[in-house]
Specification:
single chain, alpha+beta, Ybab, Chain: A, three-stranded antiparallel beta sheet, 16% strand, rod-shaped
Length: 113
């Protein structure tokens, strides 16, 4: 046998190391997801007349409507502005999530996932 040959046991340690790395990665991903649930994005529509605040986990936290917008009582316009602001906030929330989670998806690719 060649000097320094350790046989099949060496492969087992490599798997243990990989499992430890995966466990650490999972812990980091859970922390990133918890952080996303706390971070917020705010988007507006109608020149700031409607404002929507959403978390990185895509939970709507607030909708603000300028009082003078309600004086006109144009329901359809208000509905359109709210819808636009919500969709913009959802897009920003998704983008924030992708930015925070992309390091993990590229790491998982290195593990063959």
């Amino acid at each position: 046998m060649a000097k320094g040959y350790r046989g099949p046991a060496a492969g087992g340690r490599g798997q243990g190391n990989m499992m430890a790395q995966l466990a650490k990665l999972q812990e980091q991903m859970q922390q990133a997801q918890a952080d996303l649930a706390e971070e917020t994005v705010t988007e507006t529509a109608g020149g700031g007349a409607v404002s929507v605040t959403m978390t990185g986990a895509q939970v709507c936290k607030a909708i603000e409507i300028a009082p003078d917008l309600l004086e006109d009582a144009d329901v359809e316009m208000l509905q359109d502005l709210v819808l636009t602001a919500i969709n913009k906030a959802l897009d920003s929330s998704r983008q924030l999530s992708e930015e925070k989670m992309s390091p993990f998806t590229s790491m998982l690719g290195g593990f063959g996932f």
